[in-house]
Amino acid sequence: MALIDLANPTRFLSLARPTLPWLAGLTAAVFAVGLVLTHGAPDDYQQGATVKIMFIHVPSAWLGMFGWTLMSAAALGTLVWRHPLADVAAKAAAPIGAAFTFLCLVTGSLWGRPMWGTYWVWDARLTSVLLLFLMYLGVIALWRTVEDPSRAARAAAILTLVGAINLPIIKWSVDWWNTLHQPASVVKLGGPAIHPTILLPLMVMALAFTLLFLTLHLAAMRNEILRRRVRTLMLMQAQAAPGSGS
Amino acid sequence: MSPLLNPLLALFLRDVRLAIRVGGGGGIGVLFFLIVTVLMPFAIGPDLALLGRIGPAILWLGALLASLLTLDRLFAADHEDGSLDLISMSETPLELAIATKAAAHWLTTGLPLVIATPFLGLFMNLDGTASAAVALTLLAGTPALTFVGLIGAALSVALRRGGLLLAVLVLPLTVPVLIFGVAASNAAIVGPVPFGTPFTILCALTLVSLVVGIFAAAAALRQGME
Question: Which of A10, A108, B25, B180 could bridge to B202 as Cys pair (CB 3.0-4.6 Å)?
Answer without folding.
Answer: B180
